[in-house]
Amino acid sequence: MTSSSNFSVASYWAAVFAVSCLKILLLNSYRSTDFEVHRNWLAITHSLPLEKWYYDETSEWTLDYPPFFAYFEWTLSQVAKYFDEGMLEIKNLNYATFETILFQKLSVIVADFLLAYAVLRCCQVSSVLFSVSGKRKSTSDDGIPLETLFVLIFCSGGLFIVDQIHFQYNGFLFGILLLSIAKMLEGKFYQSAFIFASLINFKHIFLYVAPAYGVYLLRKQCFPPNTHIRMGNLITSVISFGVVGATVLAASFGPFYQHIPQILKRLFPFQRGLSHAYWAPNVWAGYNTVDWILNLALKKGKSSVTTGLVGEASLSVLPQVLPLHTFVLTVVCMLPALITIWKRPTELNFVQGVIITGWTSFMFGYHVHEKAILNVLIPFALVSHHQPNLFFITLVSGTVCVFPLLFNPFEIVLKAVIAILHLSLTVRCTPLSKFRIYELLYMSGFVVVYLCENFLPIFLPRFPFLPLILVSDYCLIGIFYGFIKFYWQFCIISYDIPAKTNDNLISPPRKAMQLTPDVTDSSSNKMIKRKKQVNIPEPSTRVLRKRNK
Amino acid sequence: MLSIPKATITSCVALGLFLRWGVSLFPYSGEGKPPMFGDFEAQRHWMEITVNLPIHYWYYNSTVNNLNYWGLDYPPLSAYHSYGLGKILAKLLPPAVKLGTSRGFESPVLKFLMRLSVSASDLLLPAFIIFFTIFKKLKGQHSFPPWLYITLAVSAPPFILVDYGHFQYNCVSLGLTVWAVICLFTENISLGAVAFTLAVNHKQMSLYHSLAFFAYMTSTLIVKRVDLLTTFRVGTIIISTLGLLWLPFGDYWIFVMERVFPLKRGVFEDKVGSFWYALDRVTPIRGVYDDTEVAQLCAIVTLVSVLPSAINLFLRSGNPKSLQDDLLKTFLLSMFNTSLNCFLFSYHVHEKSIMLPCLAAVLLTPWYPKEMIWFITISSLSLYPLFHQERSHIALLCVTSFFVLVAQQGKIITASGIRSLFGIIFVASVGGYLFLIFGLHFITPPGKLPHLFPALIALYSFIHFVVFTIWFHYNQMVDGRKRTVNATTPTQQGRSTKKIK
């Protein structure tokens, strides 16, 4: 479905509808408590006056997303009443009639059309990601093939698992993020900033990537490289960005102006502990594991990190980690990337910067959820053609790391099928080169991890946390490997390249694409057209090869 | 031979599994509907019977095995299959197969295990993939990429819906049939014969395809090759396979036959797009005439209706000049025509039997993409009333739309120029179904006709099926003649081979 000879915009939308049909098929699947969370928010926003939204505590799942998301829920509730009024009663806890499920799941699927539109927009402007110098080409023919982006983003296995089965609204939020990135690539900085500011007011987890936005915008608009800084220009730019931000904030928080402290209290709860019940595969998962092993070795008594309760779990041997520590560590680790963006503010570096800031926050943040890996995987898809192999390893680890969200028999089968489907489609449309032997070994290990994760509890019911530790630590290896390698190449190799040879630096995908027979087969016409246009100078190909390694 | 990239095949398998497991989430037939439940309970009950009773009692009415409650009515291989699955189920979930007390046993775990058992016995999914991998570049095929055919085959709705939604094990007999086709056309006639014999012995419905197999095999072995040794060998193999399957029943085989070919169950079941149902709307048949007489009439009409196609296949495959590539096409066309005519005219037809012509239709997509996509789509929609009853109509609509949208990815349905006429016909035909489905949900029929819309859907499907059988009989006859002419004139043949290169 993805590599037809001319994947036109019409076929694209047909494919989007086809995938939406697949999503509707998951209507009867398992739903996590997040389903009830969002049902409760529908009820709160529908039946309470605005002032009380952030105070209601009827359900334990209180509203803890920023106001735009609350408005979004309110909008949904206006439609929901035609499906089943019952779901809009705050007292109806765990209300899940067929109509309720149908409405909520459909709302995710329909909202995902924004993601589909954003993917299309990103594809149309993606040609800039092929040239480091930032020279924009007008033809959209030169960008990433639409089918590739469609597969990597819209058919993302992680999104399927988290949004359609587990139940969340990440799809359309990533749509907003991608729209803002697309605007940025087009050079429409104010629009991009506006969209991004709105995004943060939908879900504040995107604050993670804000530093990349901030540095890039500041550099591009206020301190443009290679020109003298004019005071007047600087001041107007700063004021304009201030106005954009203030407008969005006013629209979002304005109606709640008396209740802002309460909202902030809800948005940033710090009493939750270093790691989630299931450890997201980040540095702290490793830290916890080391603590657990030391604890076993020194026989110091029962460790509380492995009991699986959400709350402030305390480490038994190693020193405690406080939110402040993680915050400082995150900022410090982001700095080299931000400096690189500042020094070389290209579109490519911006997108890579978004990925790195998201990734750093994932690696070092406080109480990170495994789902946050999508913040890395989705933007990474935009630049996957630079490091396809690295992308693939990250994708495999990132997809498996959300597996523990689903644990019922049907979903145990489905999550594996979804992952295999997405990964094999990815292989079909990304220019992968040969993997190193240890990388292949690592990836085949996931089969064992999957089996252990789902069947170990049958044999070892006394250690329910053991499979989870295994998954999280094994995924950590891949994600950490990807992180280091990606960061290294971003900072070091960007510096290595002399400024002159940059112009055509990143034109590899055209060459590399042909390695995958399926894609060549199909889009051969396009390929020929492209080949004619591109003349890759000798030095740049060398750099390229270096990169591809 | 496997020049299709591994990743493509993996993704097709994964897509097929995704659709199957997605549909599995929906209710099965008779879920939570005592006292009779549905086909799911039937299959579970057969496991219960076969695991607990000695083989002679399986098909024999007794105090421990009341045949009126979902008695076994499939041939022996099906029973052995149930026995094997039942043995496993007895290990994993003993209460589900306890004799007597397990009646109506339902639990989420059982649902999962039963769905898993269908998925584990699915021979059809691999068979489709192998078929399209082996026969991907044959004469007269359209030039769509192979992955498109494989994707369409693995997402063909009727097979997914009936097996994984409604709950049956058709994937075994249908899969064996496709394996038989693969064997026959890769010169493994004995293996093909065994596979098809097994298919018929798993589900007697596969007899719809038997005439095509019979015509092709006899004509190839006796007329074309005059190879008595092979004929003898194949015959022996078939008979010994049958013997192995039926001997364990000893003298009780007659009870098996009575169960497998029931005369007392009427000329059609529920609302089905067959000729007799349509005739019944005009003048009543069911319950008016004696069942045996009607069955005889059905047998004669069916036989007459399938003969032209079978004879055509017999003559063509007996002709030493016809090419193997063309023969596959003629064989599949004959398989399609005979099974569709059996569906239209034979005795005791279920709406689900449309799967058999559909199987041939899937295999024919490389030659007739548009028509076959259309046929599969309407067959799937013709099952709508059944799935509406079982509350899994959403699954049906999803899988069917997915199938059509995939076909549209290859621009099969709408293309430029004259062909867009097909697009209009397709949309009009499917639009008719959508209107009837809309009516089924939202229009209250007049009091006298409570089942107006299911009946209309059946009749509307009947009209389609008649058009298809006429059109493809015409195709089979004309195409056969054209090819033999081609084969006899060397210049033309040379030209056509060049074109293919």
Automatic annotation (TrEMBL), chain A:
It is a multi-pass membrane protein. It is an enzyme of class 2 (transferase). The keyword Glycosyltransferase applies. It comes from the Eukaryota. Its EC number is 2.4.1.-. PANTHER family: DOLICHYL GLYCOSYLTRANSFERASE (PTHR12413), DOLICHYL PYROPHOSPHATE GLC1MAN9GLCNAC2 ALPHA-1,3-GLUCOSYLTRANSFERASE-RELATED (PTHR12413:SF2). This is Alpha-1,3-glucosyltransferase. It comes from Orchesella dallaii. The lineage of its organism: Eukaryota, Metazoa, Ecdysozoa, Arthropoda, Hexapoda.
Automatic annotation (TrEMBL), chain B:
Pathway: Protein modification; protein glycosylation. Keywords: Endoplasmic reticulum, Glycosyltransferase, Membrane, Transferase, Transmembrane, Transmembrane helix. It is a multi-pass membrane protein. It comes from the Eukaryota. The chain crosses the membrane at residues 112-135, 147-164, 176-200, 206-223, 235-255, 294-315, 327-347, 367-387, 394-414, 420-440, 452-474. It is found in: Endoplasmic reticulum membrane. Its EC number is 2.4.1.-. It is an enzyme of class 2 (transferase). Pfam families: Alg6_Alg8. Its main location: endoplasmic reticulum. Belongs to the ALG6/ALG8 glucosyltransferase family. PANTHER family: DOLICHYL GLYCOSYLTRANSFERASE, DOLICHYL PYROPHOSPHATE MAN9GLCNAC2 ALPHA-1,3-GLUCOSYLTRANSFERASE. This is Alpha-1,3-glucosyltransferase. It comes from Orchesella dallaii.
